[in-house]
Write a structure and sequence with these properties.
By secondary structure, the chain is an alpha+beta fold. The chain has two helices and five strands. It starts with 29 loop residues before the first helix and ends in a 6-residue tail after the last helix.
């Protein structure tokens, strides 16, 4: 039995192989921080210049650790949402080099349903 050579490997076009531009580097953390208001959230800057934001009900937490979160291997951002008796919460982490644009989009999506209550 023989196999036609056209079925082997993969096919693509030169256009599909073009260079892409990807978001790289930490960017501007203000893209993330500007999403929080003093009316709804507590903000603390500690002695290491790490930023901690929590919702007034205590169920949402965001930490920004520009030099890396102590005790971790380069964790730069930590998002945590406390669950309920019926549904567990979750945590999301990004390293120190994660683009702030990506973290800001994630935070916006996490905060979106909280504003609907």
């Amino acid at each position: 039995m023989t196999v036609a050579s056209a079925e082997l490997g993969f096919s693509t076009t030169a256009d599909a192989l073009r260079l892409r531009k990807w978001l790289l580097g930490p960017g501007q953390p203000t893209l993330v921080m500007d999403q929080f208001s003093a009316e709804e959230f507590h903000l603390i800057v500690d002695d290491r210049a790490d930023v901690h934001i929590s919702s007034k009900d205590g169920r949402f937490y965001l930490g920004w650790f520009p030099l890396g979160r102590p005790g971790t291997d380069g964790e730069g951002w930590k998002i945590a949402v406390t669950g309920t008796a019926q549904v567990p919460g979750y945590q999301v982490s990004f390293d120190t080099e994660a683009p702030a644009d990506i973290v800001a989009a994630t935070v916006a999506r996490v905060l979106e349903p909280s504003r609907c209550l």
